[in-house]
From TrEMBL:
Segments forming domain AB hydrolase-1: 21-259
Organism: Dactylosporangium matsuzakiense
UniProt entry keywords in alphabetical sequence: Hydrolase
Keyword Hydrolase carried by entry: yes
Protein name per UniProt: Alpha/beta hydrolase
């Protein structure tokens, strides 16, 4: 993993290198860039892939104490990364909270040439579903209590609960266990996670405004959704595809929200054939 010093602090990112067009992959809350590993194995044959680990609770180096970890703040981190690496004509792809961040970045940055939204928060689904509301409530705890509460995530039955990762992935338990490690072992990351939980969902209308901004996103846009998603309503996928001027909708079966874990080959194929 490479590192870059940004305004919030050190951000790690994976860079496959190469001379192909650039694709930037954004993950969700309490996840890291490994969400995309199986997708990268496919798309890196055609793209130079950048996959940052954003400060969303599974990062490994604590950010500055005054870092803005709201959705707008994390979008600013992403935009700064694009600028510092001088990435242009980017295919920006976001899943889960990463898709919410991607909406904000795409609406504001001319560096985004194409947008792919993969089963993500949209419109008024913030925090998203039962899972999101439960996780958001944990932000009311102190970092110490939060870290103590999260110790149960060492156990697979706890991770598989609907209020944890149970409704987010069908097949990705190994990844979800690894994502918990920084919170469980590093007090600074637990502090950052609590700050993120308190900030990410503070502006409940931010994605409603983003949706209006996306009506003028006059570049190619692909919306990929899980057919039976219980956290991100499939109707939101249809609405996003309809409001984007060049929007196209692809629906994938036998997957939960985290399509990069559950159906990486089908997701990679949808992106590369688009």
């Amino acid at each position: 993993m490479a590192e870059i010093e940004l305004g919030v602090g050190i951000v790690e990112y994976r860079d496959t290198g190469g001379d192909g067009p650039v694709m930037v992959l954004l993950h969700g809350l309490l996840m890291d860039a490994t969400l995309w590993d199986a997708v990268i194995a496919d798309v890196s044959r055609s793209f130079r892939v950048i996959a940052p680990t954003l400060p969303l609770g599974a990062h490994r180096t604590a950010v500055h104490a005054d870092a803005d970890l709201s959705l707008a703040g994390v979008a600013a981190v992403t935009t700064e990364l694009l600028e510092r690496l001088d990435l242009r004509g980017v295919t920006l792809v976001g899943n889960d909270t990463g898709g919410a961040v991607a909406q904000l970045v795409a609406a504001a940055s001319p560096r985004v040439g194409r947008l792919v939204l993969v089963a993500c928060e949209a419109f008024d689904n913030l925090p998203p579903g039962l899972t999101g509301r439960t996780v958001a409530a944990l932000g009311k705890l102190s970092p110490g209590l939060f870290r103590a509460f999260m110790q149960q995530m060492r156990l697979k039955p706890a991770r598989r609960l609907p209020i944890a990762f149970g409704w987010l992935t069908k097949r990705g338990d190994a990844a979800t266990r690894a994502w918990m490690e920084p919170i469980l072992t590093r007090p600074g990351i637990a502090r950052d996670a609590v700050r993120a939980l308190r900030s990410l969902f503070a502006d409940r209308a931010i994605l409603l405004r983003a949706a209006e901004d996306l009506r003028t996103f006059d570049r190619p846009a692909l919306v990929v959704w899980a057919a039976g998603d219980r956290v991100m309503p499939p109707e939101h996928g249809r609405r996003l595809a309809a409001l984007l001027p060049q929007g196209k909708l692809v629906t994938i079966d036998d997957t939960a929200t985290l399509i990069p874990l559950d159906q990486p080959a089908r997701l990679a194929a949808a992106i590369q054939s688009w």
